[in-house]
Amino acid sequence: METGSAGMGGAETTGSDGIGSSGMDGTTEKAGDKAGEPVWTPLPPGLLRMRRLLLVLWLVPLTAGTAVLLWLTAGAAWAAFAALPLALLLWGWPLLGRNWRSWRYAERADDLLISRGVLWHEETVVPYGRMQLVEVTSGPFERYFGLASVQLHTAAAASDALIPGLDPAEAERLRDRLTELGEARSAGL
To answer: For residues 123, 128, 130 and 134, what is the CA-based torsion angle, rounded to 10 degrees?
Structure first.
């Protein structure tokens, strides 16, 4: 079992050996979880569309530029090597879908769960009382697609958590709820 703890103020990450692993129906069973199974919330499809568009915007011009450069400098036979970035595009397209489907989060009574990963599954547990700062950020591509990310900062910098690609209204709701719960839990420490 891979379990890491980021110290006094940190989040906890659990590996994929059965404890904290995902079921096929999108729920997670925890040993000794008295509140029942968490309700998982997947990321919106806009994040997948944004990532796939960025993949196309980078690799299609790279393929065309490589083909023209090789055609002019080495000949037509060498221009076939321009298909390598195109192959990367065809390989990356389904991988982005698998990665997007692996991201989800769940709000529980005392903590926030963030689950992600295809090959290496990670589940991060962030106790509300350990949160020091909750930020909502949105870069230019995220704003174009109507997305925002929620960044959770805890006492240990190595344990900061991120939920990417949320709808801005959901990101703000989550920020306000986590801030409120964090203040309530930290007051009791």
So the answer is: 90
